[in-house]
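Marked as duplicate of an earlier ticket. Keeping the data here for the record.
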Amino acid sequence: MYRAAPGRPDTQGLLPSLPRTGLPLRTRLPVLAGAPPAPGAGGAGCGFAPRCPGTDDLCRREEPALRAVDGRAVACHHPSGEAA
């Protein structure tokens, strides 16, 4: 189900990159900076932290747990720009 206001920063960054009808040919879609982590790379912290504009020390140190936020399941320390 599509949500107009995604909670995770990675989803917020990816939605504008979806192709849409009505765009002129050769329109460049926005991209997220950096590269996704390699499969199975593991490591401490959130896997999206290197590409997230809202990353802080907590994000780099601890993987976020899945929790309910506004009726959705979100694995992010700061969904929707929540302050730490």
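See parent ticket for discussion. The first helix runs from residue 9 to 14.
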